[in-house]
Amino acid sequence: MNVLFIEDDRMNRRVVRDMLDVAGAAMAEAETAEIGLEMIDRDDYHMILIDLRMPGMDGITAIRHIRARGDAKAEVPIIVVTADSGVDLRERCLSAGADDVIVKPVAMDQLFESMGRILAGDRGGAIIS
Fold first, then answer.
1. What's the pLDDT band for 34 if we cut at 50, 70, 90?
2. Model-level pTM?
3. Residue 32 maps to which CATH number?
4. Cα separation of 73 and 21, whole Å?
5. 126 lies in a domain?
6. Which candidate, 102, 116, 125, places its Cα nearest to that of 25?
7. I need a labelling partner for 53 at 20 to 30 A (CA). Which of 4, 21, 88, 96 fits?
8. Number of structural domains the chain divides into
């Protein structure tokens, strides 16, 4: 499995990379949404993990760009990984096109449960905290 993690914090990327290594998944990293969108143009990913708050373009805007593509890459599952909270978090993310939301700090069982559910076809979106 090839995963793209769009996240500006290097430590958060490292933690998730270590988790995905356990599952044998490869992870590409992008420090900004703009770089992530360029990487999606060049390469194929089975899943995208994305933070909401980053310098430049935010995660919600990036998700909308991905979903607006006119190709199969617009359908790649997207999981928001965020420290944000609030009553409308789930609604904002799902409305933008995310498949699920995980609230930081990320636990391995939370990440794998979300990824497994989405890969099994359940793309209804839930907040896991």
1. very high
2. 0.93
3. 3.40.50.2300
4. 24
5. no
6. 116
7. 21
8. 1
Across the range 23-36, mean pLDDT stands at 97
What pLDDT was estimated at residue 127? Answer: 46
Distance CA 30, CA 107 (A): 21
Q: Is 48 helix (H, G, I), strand (E, B) or coil?
A: strand
CA distances from 52 to 18, 30, 60, 79, 90 (A): 21, 13, 6, 11, 12
The domain of 114 spans 2-120
pLDDT confidence of 89, banded at 50, 70, 90?
Answer: very high
- CA dist list (Å): 36 to 4, 22, 24, 40: 8, 23, 22, 6
